[in-house]
Each structure stands twice: as C-alpha cells, then as structure tokens.
Amino acid sequence: MQHALHPILSKARVHGLAINVAKSGLCLNDPAELRITDEGVLEVHAIIRRPLLGLIPRAARLPLGHLGPHTVARIAPYLRDETPLRLRIVGLTPEYIAQPEIFVSIWGAFRPEFPGPAPLTPPDSA
C-alpha cells in the first residue's frame, strides 16, 4: 500500500558543497537522494549533467554536499525506521550571483509519532 507523502522539511540547506553549482546542470525540482558515508555523514547525491568534450551528453550521480546537524536530527526517526524519503532540489544559487547554495525539500509518509517542533505557549500572565 502506497502512503501519501507529506513535507518533513520544506527547505534544508546542503552544506560543504562539492560541486560548482553553475556548471552542474541542476534544475529546480530535480530528484536527489540520501546516502550515508562510512563516517556516518548524510550526503545528498544528484545526477550531474556534464557533456564530454562539450558535445557528448553524459550524466553521473555525484555528491552535492551533506546535511547539517539540525536537519539530520529532524529526519533521524525516519532513517531509523527506514521510511522511504523523497528529496527534490528547491533552491539553487550559482557562484556568479552570490555565495553558492543548494537547498532540498524532504518528503516522507506522515508519521504522527514523529511530531514537528513543539507549539509556542503564551507566557504566564501574572
């Protein structure tokens, strides 16, 4: 039975970029995936399009960077239970505009046992 996907994190920064964003061929809404390294780092991988000799199209799945500690803490319960996650590229800033950035959204099956942040409570009125 397929469960509907819901946003876990709508926009998570990819840290330690390992690619040139402007030359990567990435587009908004491109799929991405998570891979755990031997050191336990959650890397974000995506298909990078780089033509060979400027003519022959070729693509390779390469690491873009890794997720930060707050993002890892938020999705850790989903990873422990091996819940399928869907990642999409939702933000790209190439080097020629500003500091390069990549953002991904993370979606998964709704899990009521993994609540979001605690709601704010109003201060006591004395």
Attribute tags:
1 helix; elongated; mainly beta; Alpha-Beta Plaits; 126 residues; six-stranded antiparallel beta barrel
What does this structure look like?
The protein has a single domain (5-109), classed as Alpha-Beta Plaits, CATH 3.30.70. The chain has a six-stranded antiparallel barrel with strand order 1-4-3-2-5-6. The longest helix has 12 residues, at 69-80. The chain is mostly beta strands. The model has no long low-confidence stretch (mean pLDDT 85). The protein is elongated. The protein has one helix spanning 69-80, and strands spanning 5-15, 31-36, 42-49, 59-67, 85-93, 101-109.
What is the rounded Rg? 17 Å
Order of helices and strands: EEEEHEE
Tell me the CATH architecture. Answer: 2-Layer Sandwich
CATH topology description: Alpha-Beta Plaits
Strand content: 35-45%
Question: What topology does this entry show?
Answer:
Blueprint: E1 5-15, E2 31-36, E3 42-49, E4 59-67, H1 69-80, E5 85-93, E6 101-109
Antiparallel strand pairs: 1-4, 1-6, 2-3, 2-5, 3-4, 5-6
In short:
This protein has 126 residues and is mainly β. 10% of the residues lie in helices and 41% in strands.
